[in-house]
Amino acid sequence: MLKKDTYDVVIIGSGPGGLAAAVAAKKAGAEDVLVIERDMELGGILLQCIHNGFGTEIFKEDLPGPSYAQRYIDESIELGVETLLDTIVLEVTPGRKLFVSSKQHGFFEINARALVLAMGCRERTRAMIQIPGMRPAGVYTAGTAQRFVNIEGKMPGEKVVILGSGDIGMIMARRLTFEGAKVERVLEILPFLSGLNRNYVQCLQDFDIPLLFKHTVKFIHGKNRVEAVETVAVDDKWNFIPGSEEIIPCDTLLLSVGLIPENELSRQAGVELDPLTGGPYVDESRQTNVPGIFAAGNVVHVYDLADWVTLAGYEAGKGAAKFAMALRASEEAHIPVLAGNNVHHVVPQTINKRSLEDEEIELQFRVRTPVEDRVMIEVHDGKNQIARKSARYARPGEMNTITLKPKNFADVEKASSITVDVNPR
Predict the structure, then answer these.
(1) SS3 state of residue 321
(2) Which structural domains are found in the chain, ordered by start?
(3) What pLDDT, on the 0 to 100 scale, is given for residue 2?
(4) Three-class SS of residue 178?
(5) What are phi and psi of 364, to 5 degrees?
(6) Residue 331 confidence (pLDDT)
(7) Distance (Å, rounded) from C-alpha 60 to C-alpha 213?
(8) d(CA 355, CA 333)
(9) Is residue 348 reached through a cis peptide bond, with omega within 30 degrees of 0 on the bond before it?
């Protein structure tokens, strides 16, 4: 099982934002840092991005995605960051309690002094853009096709049309061409690229893959498998232009039509979302409106470069560590007062170490069941007795007290908690 149930900083997601947050939190002084990842390995989406283009801003090198991720994986391990892989976070509360499930550990709870949301984003699907037609096999998001080819070693198809000029779509046009597929067309409903210009040059122009602006897919043909797509030109208001239809035979349609920040857990935690970005409102330290909950990377808004995600992760990690250390200091300044044998509750429930000066501290409590004919009331730290007194009886209907005197304060200050017991003499 886990080493502990409370961590200074817990990070959901191990992509470039999550790993950077973990490294930054450790370097900023957080003692316990935990990364939770739903996949079997650390790295997030970087593991399937085997193309170059990562690290140009931070390392001044041109790295493939897995190599970029490995640098942060190695650094996080060296710093002592703990990880939970193949693990799903089911719910997050505003108080930073996580309800978590995994095959190895089952269902359990984790408390975070500070939490970093780094779940990334997801792709828009066919249902979201409502392309008419049957529901044949062969319609994929570009990221799904990327995983098929680069991780699973499977080809999604042989004759491909790509809708959208997002970066993953253009990169997959080149990748599928490398593997022997024929990319018939890339269509973009906008009059300009939605991805990076460098990907247009390196992935489409260099491989003579045609790109049509102000075009989209009007209909998908095929019952069991995609057989063709009907394309159409659009005007400035995205209305179809009659007579511009074209049937393109193909067996695969890839969708690269935008990304959506992954914020279901954020909503559960009471995080306020910006309707323009789909991600949380954050301050300069990447803290959301919920104290102690931070967010970084594509979960906040969609970035063009992983390097920018990493830099945002650094800020979130540093902010989370600062918040956690302040909270830890506050917790350590208070000594819990616990109800022990036959005690229903005690007030005060905690003692501030700064109040351990010259004045006495009275503990008030009620018992669960009556004890007649003399009782012994004892305060202890689990091993050592701190104070005691006897009483004629103890009854649930009457409040009882025991006073901690200045001579007891040295023992109280050394305790991680103190407990009040009521026993028959």
Answers:
(1) helix
(2) 6-122+260-332 (3.50.50.60), 125-257 (3.50.50.60), 334-424 (2.60.40)
(3) 65
(4) helix
(5) -110, 140
(6) 82
(7) 33
(8) 10
(9) yes
Give the separation between CA 252 and CA 96, rounded to whole angstroms.
43
CA–CA distance, 313 with 311 (Å, rounded to integer) = 5
- Which amino acid does the sequence have at 378? E
Concatenated DSSP letters of 44-84: GGGGG--SS-BSTTTTSS-B-HHHHHHHHHHHHHHHT-EEE
Residue 41 DSSP code = S
Query: What is the helix, strand, coil percentage profile of the chain, to 5?
Result: 30, 35, 40
Tell me the two tokens of residue 327.
Answer: 């909270």
Tell me how crowded residue 37 is: count the other CB atoms within 10 A of its CB: 24
Please identify which residue in the block is written with the tokens 């991780």.
151
Q: Name residue, tokens 């050592």.
A: 384
d(CA 360, CA 407): 9
* Residues of the chain falling short of pLDDT 70: 1-3
Write the pLDDT tens digit of every residue in 189-212. 999 999 999 999 999 999 999 999
pLDDT for position 3: 64
- Token pair 């701190």 in the structure block, residue: 386
Could you count the other beta carbons within 10 Å of the beta carbon of residue 226? 25
In whole angstroms, give the CA distance from residue 215 to residue 232: 6
pLDDT of res. 276: 94
At residue 116, the pLDDT reads 98
In this predicted structure, what is the pLDDT of residue 332?
80
What residues contact residue 211 under an 8 Å CB cut-off, 6+ apart?
165, 185, 186, 187, 188, 200, 204
Decide: 410 and 375 in contact? Cβ < 8 Å. Answer: no
Which residue pairs from 204-211 have beta carbons closer than 8 angstroms and sit at least 24 positions apart in sequence?
204/170, 204/173, 204/174, 206/174, 207/173, 207/174, 207/177, 207/183, 209/173, 209/174, 209/177, 209/183, 209/185, 210/185, 210/186, 211/165, 211/185, 211/186, 211/187
